[in-house]
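dumping this here so i dont lose it
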């Protein structure tokens, strides 16, 4: 029995079933209640969100404040320095974009550092697994590949991609992938990213007290910084991960807490950097460590993922996935986790307390993320197994000395994930004529109404997974093909929506396409940095033709129904700046009917970009997204599905005359 902690009292008793749709998480929250263990839901229930902060109507960027404005009378007063509500909101938004962009960009630079060391022969535990992808990425940014060695191409690619971060003038390398009309819009607005470091630095400077005080000018740098993430840092992270660890293709994977095994040593990796997980796979398959586990009474070692680390390896190795962000504490309540290993991003500090209750080692591995109360074992790419072997040894020791009551929810779901841009291209056209043309054709003829990216986190302020699942059900029912990344795709996998069999829930047009191709109506494509795959797919749809000349012309939308992190705001802004109508749920840091609100939710679209939307109810969200798709279809002149007509010889002669 774990040591009981003091759980904050809620104002009223809450039905656990109102917190989540995940049956496994419900079971563990009930156990946590009995065990006296606190989770994020307890803290959220006992702590009311600050209404002024939620509306972004406060400013704390200098010591003259904090200044709090009234959202009900936003122009009734200004801050001590004279800052208006629009300046305050845009500065707050800017700092969220900067922090979110820094998170993904720093992750991408870590992957590029690893790539450099592998290419130069300084790291031998990793190697280039996908030389075809290496050449494709190199060619996409103008690097010559004919009659050149893999090593020479890789060195040139490193040097070119390094500019993504360090360049102070010019355009980032992947700007070459952007459709010409979209790039023209960026150039006209002066928002083509130079280098991520410069953009983030400048945005932080502009949002400092007494610098940029024009909300329209601030949003330009917000867009420029966000684009340096989506078309820069995140895209580099995705492409380098594919080159080093393999480009995903569809695999069937098990998700939910039932993937844990009582008679095995259970190790969970949670975070975002795939190199840690790749090394952990090696350690868990080491014969000597497997024998050590058996000597300790276990039948073997069971490795599982959570959050985006899990999403990275489920699409490459079919490693089981135990749950998304809001289940990371609940999975520890099973008592079956013998070690949880974390690196960076989306790691709750509360994990340390829950892990301690069940005597589960919580192990941090990255110098960027240490947690008070956790054990730190530094992960070094030059000797990666020194860390991951030690994690396995600690997990085996915990298994041998388990004292916590083990209760594993007997719920496992199956999902099919790994739909990289490359695989979609192959899936639609085959090895020799791979193309997005069939996708465009089916959008033009109306079988597929449009495409939606439904991505992002889960948030304790809303019912876990509910908005994701209900939104996607509504979209596919109306023939909208859905692409998924991050925690969202795990919610959909648990709901059974990521298998080909889910096509029966789609509208007749989308169902016909899914059954013909043998694909799900919901395509899981990877972790949150892999939103860049959606950008590449959108660019290819423009390139193929028939759906306009820019990303803004496409019948395509985006949504983050249960977002919670600054990364999500940055992701949303780079989709908006790329031309996509992007809807967020849960909450949005804005005061309605201000100039800033009108710019984000309407004005940007008039400038040739996308725009923001907000709704809490998933069905309202779906209506907004479908209405936008229909508007784009009408603008393209494809609002009525083409009739399929059998052509006789006379008709064919008329066409060729």
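and the seq i came up w/
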């Amino acid at each position: 029995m774990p040591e009981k902690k003091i759980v904050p009292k809620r104002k009223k008793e809450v039905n656990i079933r109102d917190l989540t749709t995940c049956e496994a998480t419900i079971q563990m929250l009930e156990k946590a209640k009995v065990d006296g263990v606190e989770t994020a839901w307890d803290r959220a229930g006992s702590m009311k969100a600050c209404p002024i902060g939620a509306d972004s109507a406060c400013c704390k960027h200098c010591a003259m404040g904090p200044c709090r404005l009234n959202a009900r009378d936003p122009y009734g007063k200004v801050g001590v320095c004279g800052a208006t509500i629009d300046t305050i909101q845009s500065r707050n938004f800017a700092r969220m974009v900067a922090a979110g962009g820094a998170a993904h960009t720093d992750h991408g630079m870590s992957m590029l550092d690893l790539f450099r060391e592998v290419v130069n022969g300084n790291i031998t535990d990793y190697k280039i697994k996908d030389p075809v992808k290496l050449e494709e990425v190199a060619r996409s940014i103008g690097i010559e590949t004919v009659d050149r060695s893999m090593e020479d191409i890789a060195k040139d690619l490193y040097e070119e991609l390094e500019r993504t971060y360090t360049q102070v003038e010019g355009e980032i390398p992947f700007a070459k992938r952007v459709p010409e009309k979209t790039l023209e819009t960026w150039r006209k607005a002066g928002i083509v990213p130079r280098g991520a470091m410069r953009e983030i630095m400048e945005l932080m400077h502009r949002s400092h007290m007494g610098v940029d005080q024009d909300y329209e000018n601030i949003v330009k740098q917000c867009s420029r910084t966000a684009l340096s993430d989506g078309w820069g840092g995140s895209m580099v992270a995705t492409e380098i991960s594919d080159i080093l660890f393999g480009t995903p293709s569809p695999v069937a994977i098990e998700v939910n807490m039932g993937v844990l095994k009582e008679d095995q040593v259970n190790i969970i990796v949670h975070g975002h950097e795939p190199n840690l997980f790749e090394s952990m796979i090696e350690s868990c398959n080491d014969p000597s460590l497997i024998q050590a586990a058996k000597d300790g009474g276990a039948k073997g070692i069971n490795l599982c993922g959570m959050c985006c680390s899990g999403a990275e390896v489920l699409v490459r190795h079919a490693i089981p996935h135990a749950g998304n962000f809001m289940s990371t504490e609940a999975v520890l309540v099973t008592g079956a986790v013998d070690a949880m290993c974390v690196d960076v991003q989306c790691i709750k500090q509360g994990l340390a307390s829950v892990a301690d209750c069940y005597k589960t080692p919580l192990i941090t591995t990255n110098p960027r993320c240490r947690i008070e109360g956790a054990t730190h074992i530094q992960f070094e790419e030059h000797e990666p197994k020194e860390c991951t072997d030690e994690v396995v040894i600690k997990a085996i020791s915990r298994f041998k000395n388990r004292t916590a009551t083990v209760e594993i929810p007997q719920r496992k779901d199956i999902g099919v994930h790994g739909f990289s841009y490359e695989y979609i291209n192959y899936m639609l056209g085959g090895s020799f004529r791979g193309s997005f043309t069939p996708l465009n054709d089916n959008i033009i003829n109306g079988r597929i109404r449009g495409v939606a990216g439904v991505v992002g986190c889960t948030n304790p302020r809303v019912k876990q997974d509910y908005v994701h699942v209900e939104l996607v059900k509504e979209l596919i029912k109306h023939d909208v093909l859905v692409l998924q990344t991050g925690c969202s795709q795990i919610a959909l996998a648990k709901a059974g929506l990521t298998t080909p069999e889910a096509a029966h829930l789609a509208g007749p047009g989308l169902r016909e396409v899914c059954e013909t191709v043998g694909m799900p109506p919901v395509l899981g494509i990877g972790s949150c940095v892999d939103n860049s795959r959606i950008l590449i797919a959108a660019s290819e749809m423009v390139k193929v033709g028939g759906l306009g000349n820019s990303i803004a012309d496409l019948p395509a939308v985006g949504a983050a129904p249960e977002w919670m992190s600054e990364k999500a705001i940055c992701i949303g802004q780079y989709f908006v700046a790329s031309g996509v109508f992007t809807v967020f749920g849960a909450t949005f840091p804005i005061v309605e009917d201000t100039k800033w609100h009108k710019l984000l939710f309407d004005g940007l679209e008039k400038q040739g970009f996308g725009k923001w939307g907000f709704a809490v109810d998933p069905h309202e969200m779906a209506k907004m997204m479908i209405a936008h798709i229909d508007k784009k279809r009408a603008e393209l002149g494809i609002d009525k599905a083409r009739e399929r007509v059998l052509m006789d010889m006379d008709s064919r002669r008329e066409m060729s005359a």
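The domain at 257-400 is CATH 3.40.50.2030 (Rossmann fold).
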